Amino acid sequence: MLSGSEQIRSEPMDEDDMLGATLAQATIGGFIILLILTAIQDVRHFRISNQMVMAVGLLYLVYFLAAGLQNNFNPVPEIVGPLLSAMGVFIAFTALFAMGVMGGGDVKMATVVALWCGPEHVLDFILLTALTGGLVSLAVLAKKKWGMSDAPDLTNGPAPIVQASVPYGVAIAFAGIVIAVRLLTEG
């Protein structure tokens, strides 16, 4: 239902199919906008609001139902893969939260983004988030080291990396946008 592995239909689209396809594309566009807003919010406030997390989750529900209109699917078995993907991301990211690497908002946002990824894209999402998060972390550390902020200088003795606040929402948003573009192109 939600991946490029769908069978291509030979018959023309009926009204439900067109409505479902249009609604699915619109929700993906909304998803991208919410991810951009999430990244901005995290950079500005080092916080991802519960309202933003809920908006992304509720928009996924609309996307899921729209895809069902388009593909005439049984929703019960179709939701299992995305839910398992989200659960796996939640467990992994909660471990990072427990180690002080990321905040609770990051965990919640990554979990709802994993719904959108489903099993087809969740590993790519995790890898992209990790790589982008590493680049964001390096940028934050470089900014602090070269005195471009009033943050404490990290050169005065060893300091754990987790001491520097890192807006991981940027990495989560970037990876989510990459997956959203894939969802659009896979149709």
Total DSSP E strands: 0
Q: Secondary-structure element sequence?
A: HHHHH
* Strand residue percentage: under 5%
Low-confidence sequence ranges: 1-10, 151-155, 157-162
Number of separate helices: 5
- Overall domain count: 1
Q: Kindly name the structural category.
A: mainly alpha
Apparent shape: elongated
Distance between the termini: 10 Å
Largest sheet: none
The portion of residues assigned to helices is over 70%
Name its key features.
mainly alpha; 0% strand; disordered N terminus; 187 residues; elongated
Description:
The protein is mainly alpha-helical. The chain has one domain (15-186). The chain contains 5 helices and no strands. It has helices spanning 15-45, 50-71, 75-98, 104-145, 168-186. Helix 1 (15-45) runs antiparallel to helix 2. The protein is elongated.
List the helices and strands and how they pair.
Layout: H1 15-45, H2 50-71, H3 75-98, H4 104-145, H5 168-186
In short:
The protein is an all-alpha fold. 74% of the residues lie in helices and 0% in strands.
